[in-house]
Design goal:
The complex is a heterodimer.
Chain A lengths: L19 H5 L15 E7 L5 E7 L1 H4 L4 E6 L21 E2 L5 E7 L2 H10 L1 E6 L6 H4 L15 E9 L2 H6 L3 E9 L11 E6 L5 E5 L4 H12 L6 E5 L15 H12 L3 E4 L2 H7 L6 E9 L5 E13 L9 H10 L6 E9 L13 H19 L3 H8 L5 E2 L5 E2 L4 H12 L1 H9 L6 E13 L11 E7 L5 E5 L8 H13 L6 E4 L17 H28 L6 E4 L2 E4 L5 E4 H12 L4 E7 L18 E13 L5 E11 L6 H21 L4 E2 L2 E2 L17 E6 L17 H4 L1 H13 L10 H10 L5
Chain B lengths: L2 E5 L4 H9 L3 E3 L5 H7 L7 E5 L9 E4 L2 E5 L4 H6 L1 H6 L1 H8 L4 H6 L2 H7 L7 H6 L3 E6 L6 E5 H4 E3 L2 E2 L5 E9 L4 E8 L10 E10 L2 E10 L6 E2 L1 H7 L6 H14 L10 H21 L1
Parallel strand pairs in B: 1-3, 2-3
Antiparallel strand pairs in B: 4-5, 5-10, 6-7, 6-10, 8-9, 11-12, 12-13, 13-14
Classes of the chains: A alpha+beta, B alpha+beta.
Chain lengths: ~775, ~280
Amino acid sequence: MSESTRPRGAVGAPIPKLDAPERVTGRIRYIHEIGLPRMLHGAVLRAEVPHARIVRVDTSRALSLPGVRAVLTGADVPLVPFGHGRDNTALKADFVRCIRDEVAAVAADTEEIAREACRRIRVEYEPLPAIFDPEEAARPGALRVWPEREDNLAFNYHYDHGDVAAGEAESDAVVEGTYRLHYVTHACLGTSGIVAAFDSDGRLTLHSVTQVPFLYRRDMSRIVGVPPEHIRVIQAAIGGGFGSKLDIYPYEPIAIFLARATGRPVRILFDRGEEFRDSPTRQPAIVHLRSGARRDGTLTFRTARLLLDNGAHTSWGATTPFVMMQTFSSLYRVPHAAFDAEVVYTHNPYAGSFRGYGNLQATFPIEVQLDELAESLGIDPLELRLRNAQVPGEVTGQGLVFQSCGLAECLRTAAAASGWEEKRRAYAQAGEGPLRRGIGMASMVHTGGGAKIYHSDGCGTVLTVDDFGSVTLVTGATEIGQGSETVLAQIAAEELGIPVDRFTVVNSDTQVKPWDVGVHASRTTFIAGNAARMAANKARRKLLDAAAEQLGVPAGDLEIRDGDVVRASDGKVLTDVGRVVRKLHFATRYDVVTTTAYYEPPSAMQDPGFKGNVSPTYSFATHVVEVEVDVETGVIRPLRVTAVHDAGRVINPLGALGQVEGGVAMGLGYAMTEDLVIREGRVLNGSFRDYKLFTAPEMPEVDVRWVETADPDGPFGAKGIGEAPAICIAPAVVNAVYQATGRRFRSLPLRPERVALELARGEGEE
Amino acid sequence: MPVTAFHAPSSLADALALLAAGGRPVAGGTDLVVELAAAPDGGPPGALVSLHRLAELRSVAVEDGDLVMGAGVTVATLREHPLVREHAPVLAQAADRFAGPQVRNAATLGGNLCHASPAADLAPPLLVLDAVVVLAGGEGGEAERRVPVDAFFVGPRRTARLPGELLTAVRVPLRGGRRASFQKGGTRPSMDISVVSVAASAELRDGVLRHARIALGAVGPTPLRSPAAEAVLEGAPATAATVAAAARAVLRDARPIDDVRASAAYRLHLLGVLAQRVIRDVIDR
């Protein structure tokens, strides 16, 4: 994809999202608005206790309720284990191991009846002792969540490069600490849901909110016993995903079993309480980190030991070390690094994937510790980071290839735009009164074009230019609210020379769209963008060849601009693409302009030691935040965020700005207000009343700037931006709070209560 | 509560008759609807009596030396009404920190008081303003009875309102020279239930504090006044030492609990901080 960039105005234009009018006028159809004839409503009864033996389930009072069409328990459905650890089933027949565990399900004429029927089901439990503390669960002889296993260790990961002991021997300063990251939830405005319908041939249609429609077919097939080729997935507009819909969760096969049992379509929708309690969380983590540097600030080594709470069943949270280790190995140049992570079962709810996929949890300890290292060396935090920042062409110890890398420029731009030097100096003098100010920074690296965790990380595209010059772009990629439809249309429009407003993007039906891995790992702009560009390039050539033949001029003398075929030399309009296609249909060739393309990135699956260039490109960012801390009440007010991102060439500055502002809001919530409180396996604050998102009045001004490195393999030089903005704001806040208060916090969130009480307790480290 | 009927009377007399028959009043519904959604089957079934058509509950006026605010006045109105801002600015201050714009547009003065949450944001300001609530209906028919706000809150979610009675208005006696202030704290500045709230009022004559009142929210079973702090302030010089002593005294009247929103320890800490700030603000105002 190294053809020269021909600026036509589509790439780089701040175009509002194509689906924005549908969304803001309420016309878009979310899963909640999908209704089918004869559709029933499903509801799920979950465990009331975190660990118990199911003695008996009495469904008679549910079955006798008028309007109830089916009641299923673990005895009624196949219990095919699924999930990354093959340790979850749709319903639970013998034991429940966390409060989310599904014990029974009902299909009824209305949602109210279904929920009432669930309340009428009597489950007799024999309560069993439970284990909730991952550190306790990791000890030898601990109560086992799965007695058939030797211990609670679900997964472990080891990675290293270089020689850590040698690195430590060269160090003039070594710092270490333990950092704790908490539970947060995605808080999607649109709750989870599914509609399952069998046709008379036993073929299954799923209206789903999945982020991975093709993998979903394959995995669901095994769970419910329907051949994958008989499963059609139609993706409803997603009302927020952020990773929460990357896995299959039990409610989805349950809906299919209910549809099978009743012979009618069944819809299951989460209510808000279920969305908080029963959808996956961000992976919590305990990180012990140690790192060293020479006197001049050159990093010498880094070691990390992590303990992750797997919960009772395994979802994607257990695989976040895969992403975390990229940051431990490759955020800044570290000659020697070692990383060990253990993931242990407990009776807690389980975590899934969540924007950043472990990278928030990895970047936090590293960036907080870098400030400690800077302080112990007497070097400015900016200086320390610049000294160790990677450069273009870098191949890291893990084998990540940074073919485009704007980290140093992100650092410099963020420092200049935020007034780093003067504010750093000014805030070094502790102020009078309860309000103290500080400024802090942090950076990040994240995959900018997917992660090759399957043998393919590709995406297919089918593009048609019709007889009136309109374009239909059928992409395998999934729209999750991130604006991929718009960006893909812009890329194809730029390549084709046909304006974006003539585009329709089709992306929601596995019966229609070609294969794609799914929406995750900030891959869509890069991978689906390249596929769209390739298909558009083929269509452009075909149009120009046809026009050349029709006009009797060499194709090389022609260009397509704004939907017209023009003479390249002077821009004179000769015909338009609609006319060219019509002639192609009716006269010259009896052909259509429909092209296909499949793009497979030049990334590699990693070896068993986790080495290899997992993504074709990487994005970088630096965030600087200025805070005001009320040291008496503990309230932290972020005054200004400067967010500088290297996302390559920015395809749509408006959409990219939205990604950054949204990510900063999400990251500030992670840093300061959001806290899903889980005690003894139970969620205590499952409502927006008590789960505190960062809301509009709290948001500071966000100054967003771009370092537009042009990635050689990116579509028009672009890289992914989806996850990056959420990743490095929390450590920047902690570093700013340290300057403001002299208190280095090593865990999140910095809720006022914790800040005030710890400051009142006196000086020193946490 | 299973809802058996929804009435929307257009006169106070009709409303009182419906309430006398056992109906439950609903105004903005910002507490009630949440409660109904959380426990649709909780408690005995009953009828709802909506007050939204009763224009007489929505007036704000000065009468007989009192600022009289109808129970149906919304929090948004309290925040902006010129008479409230002139005569009871501390109430407008609390209204400004109350939830978010949508809730403020629906929630009413009467509803906030009758729901009687210990964290009700309008209660501390009204307690320090010596406000009186006006109740109609019940045994007294259409005759009114007046109860000082101080005696209105009798327990968690319980008030002196008798069955069949309707809170129709709140009266705040006008007093020249009175200064007052309100502060609340929580996890975030907006859309948050108070972890602690404090209001104070006093007159300052010749450097001495008179008619001092201090009231606390979310640190006991009801919104409450702090007699210990008021005793410290009454007749005391407006000095930093007085402020500090009163802020310490406040802690003696607080009985906070631990819950998912905050620990008792933080509530006490924050109470001390906010009490100092409101008293200092009263003095400096």
